[in-house]
User: Fold this.
Amino acid sequence: MQQPENQPAQVVRAETPQPTGSIRSTIHCYDLPPDLVEKAVNRLGWLALVYVTSHIALRVVSHYSGHPEGVPEHSLFPAPFPLADIGLIVAVVSGLVVCALAWSRKLPDRLMLDIGLLFEVVGAFCIALVEFSVPPSSSNLLGQGNSSIVVWITFFILVVPSTFGKTTLAALTSAAMGPAGLAVSILFHQSTVPAPGLWLGLFFPNFWFAAGAMLLSRFIYRLGCDVSKAREMGSYKLLEPLGSGGMGEVWRAQHRMLARTSALKMIRSDVCMMKDKRAGTVARRFEREVQATAALHSPHTVAVYDFGTADDGCFYYVMELLDGLDLDSLVERFGPLPPERVISFLQQACESLAEAHSNGLIHRDIKPKNIFSCRLGLNYDFIKVLDFGLVKDDMQSEEAQTRLTVEGTTTGTPAYMPPEMALGKTVDARTDIYALGCVGYWLLTGQLVFEGSTPMAMLLAHLQTPPIPPSERTEVEIPSSLEQVILSCLEKEPDRRPQSALELSRRLAACEVSETWSPERAERWWRTHMPSPEAPPQAALVAERET
Assistant:
């Protein structure tokens, strides 16, 4: 997942309203969803490239075709004439410029689509210049055949959707480029003006196809609007997808009244529509996830804003959108972290877990991807613990917990799975302590505690193999006190680990480091390495894990 840089969403713990209910079908669509617009811009780049290569290829073919000079023979490219050269040059230059702008993403997507409509008109004019590049005469014009402009208009509307008004203006203007090209040719060659009936016969098909293309455009655009309407979840409008997994997906969403941008997580529609028990299990897991998260109030636990059910019965919930990156991405991008920064991260995670454990909740899937470092207001390196989808309630029976595990899937992540969890034994707070020790090991070394070619080999290593001290697997100098704390978390026997998150936090605070990780250092790091927006904020919760 790419690292975001936008301004962070204001984290305000609001009262959780009642479920907002169904998707509203009465909301009018005034624009296409951003992800569809982005794809349209990408297609515009390809269309411009095809346009350029087609002009060049046809010119090469016409050069070797042996057409008698001055006779078009229904060909787009007659033997080279000055007007054909002008049309070719303008077509190539304009097409390459549009292609470069579309793929560079330097302009806003919607502005790029407007430029694309202008390119449609310019492209039609270039086609007309080439088609009427020979000195026009009645015999030539009678054998001209239908203009390639009609093909250009139709393809453009299929590839680049726009509003009905803009499409109509661009299509009719493009159709009018046929008469404009002939008029330029008449003036250029000082030829006789053809009879009005000949003009009508030549260019009526252009406007006829333009009218048909306008109706087609309205249909295509309405389909995009229907997608936008279908993406209305209660009071929230889905803006763009942020991630997808085996059973769930996360969207950037906006509350229509509050204009607050959030992350909305929902069960994928294809999973929701399944008739077997798997869909019910996923729904119950989602419900438990939002209930568990909403019950926690630590600032280091992701905040839940809202929840509800769509018309198709799929469950969704809304949480804060975070400006930052998960710890897995952080290490992958910037390498192992200084020990003092690792201590700061682990202590903040301990605060979230301590509250969860005091409420009888065990996370069971602590890993770097589920711990998020973000900018929150004026705070930098603020840690959020995410994804309580596998949380275990100590008050619930093991049998009930088992029923929430989808058949054929593994609960947890092998690289961070404690021995007792791998063996199917009872888990408690010390299970999360072990996983958090694995996270600390990753942050210090950029390597997993145990490597394995298969998940089973990795699980066996957690069960049987003593971990190599992190100081032996990195060039970063690690204080011995911190290394001892990490290794104590990785003890095979739960009784030999820190017995609570608060105890672990106290041990981390007692570690001797050369320099503390201060707020000033954190801010300086962010301003140096992630100073400006690069991508939309990531979702506060990752999508449902792949099975």
Q: What stands out?
A: Residues 34-230 form one domain.
